[in-house]
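This section describes the prediction task in plain terms. A model, or a person checking by hand, is given the sequence of a single protein chain and must write out its three-dimensional structure as a string of tokens. No templates, partner chains or ligands are provided. The sample shown here is typical of the held-out split.
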Amino acid sequence: MERIRTDLLVIGAGSGGLSVAAGAAQMGVRVVLLEGGEMGGDCLNWGCVPSKALLAAARVAHAQAHASAFGIADMVPQVDFAAVKDHVAQVIAEIAPNDSQERFEALGVRVIRDYGRFISSTEVRAGNHVIRARRVVIATGSSPLVPPIPGLADVPFDTNETIFARRARPEHLLVIGGGPIGMEMAQAHVRLGSKVTVIEGDRVLNRDDPDLAAVVRAALEREGVEIAEDAMVSGVRRDGGVTEVSVADGRVFRGSDLLVAVGRRANTDRLNLQVAGIETTRTGIRVDAGLRTTNRRVYAIGDVAGGLQFTHVAGYHAGVVIRSILFGLPARAATHHIPRVTYTDPELAQVGLAEAEAREKFGTRLEVVRFDMAHNDRAVAERRTEGFIKLMVVRGRPVGASIVGHQAGELVNLWSLALANRLKMGQIAAMVSPFPTIGEVNKRAAGAYFSPRLFDSPMVKRVVGAVQRWIP
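The expected answer:
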């Protein structure tokens, strides 16, 4: 048994853990990193990277089939599904060196490829190693939630951890869950030639503004995705080569393959947290505003901390704990400026408060501004006019932005910056945006906030008239 003493122990080599380990090691801190699975975690291997690679391939296929608006003949795309999966694997392989054991060892990190579990409040065991660290960061992420649906255990099904390895195209993919993962995979597969049915117990994309979600839903239905809402699954069975999904109201959906995409659960089972005095909640590890657990030597970041489950949140959390651990500075994690994006086509992005949330919080002080993509010249030129931006503004400051449309995920960056730095609408309107760009939508939306104040105001018109009479 090897006993190791170190300054910092990081458990989990996903995006958050890797960011902490790299930052600390490059500042001269002794770091031990534990990872029993794949370096890079969910994002690189089964999440963000492969899903976006698959969506990119699907977008190319869709473009071939819908080129006539540009004067180019539509073509039925010839999809080699196995080759598409080769493309996905190649994208992962190109990015993997950034997250590799070799890179982190070169940075001075001691990498141990095993799972860690607490054996006391100050020690963690991983294989034949016992590590005592001054500070510990838990960054073990999350895994697909598999609900206790009757019959599911007896039926073959995929989650995001297995679907990207499938090399045969599903003839008819049934998707349980209409959240971001389910909707993204539904669109990717229908564009690549599968029939797809999405089965959702509530409404699809139910965490998002219903006005925006309706745009995405309509787009997927136009492309051939069958969407069943208010369809609470009551059972699953396999009959020969057909999977049957029954819902509470009596409907039955049949397909060749099944994807379960109903959410995520924090990875805490292996950690033996109670021995270390670390409390958990229904969603993950209990942390304070500085991401410190009930054991003051231990922090938790990313999905396992029980909050927003996004790769960029894990990276943000890494910066918070580095400030605290390395510099002893007070650091608190906020959420008001954290964006989220569903990478369907059109994309759906949100930062800050959605309209319903903002109305509940601010009441009559809230102003809602809308600007349609159809009024953006670049969007017109590219035939991407579907969608709009909706801004929630209180006393001249944005408190939320909801965007659906082409490049919504890129457009939301500016509003995250605005919320993080408490910018005013006038500062956004003062920005000079190159023409013609999709990004000009943000400036035009800010301008739409001021338009009624300038053009519909009798007082402004009287002032302008007076100035004109006095100017020589």
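For orientation: The mean pLDDT is 95.
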